[in-house]
Design goal:
The chain is mainly alpha-helical. The protein contains four helices and no strands. The protein has one domain: Alpha Horseshoe (Serine Threonine Protein Phosphatase 5, Tetratricopeptide repeat). α2 packs antiparallel against α3. It comes from Lentithecium fluviatile CBS 122367. InterPro entries: Ankyrin_rpt, Ankyrin_rpt-contain_sf.
Length: 69
């Protein structure tokens, strides 16, 4: 992930068909290191909501990923 982020060819905040960006997936999965890398880019919308109106923070909390929250 770090190598991909170092290139300018990566769209860090690209969303899938459900409105979920990489930050959403990293937070929901409890991948603390990836969340930190994405946040360090300053190119992610932290409070972006998916198609259900839920944010990455909500999913991290729902899944019990305290380190991500």
């Amino acid at each position: 992930v770090k190598l991909l982020l170092e290139t300018s060819k990566v769209e860090v905040d690209a969303k899938d068909s459900h409105g979920r960006a990489p930050l959403w997936w990293a937070a929901e999965g409890g991948h603390e290191a990836v969340v930190k890398l994405l946040l360090e880019t300053d190119k992610v919308e932290v409070d972006a909501k998916d198609s259900h109106g839920l944010t990455p923070l909500w999913w991290a909390a729902e899944r019990g990923h305290k380190a991500v929250v």
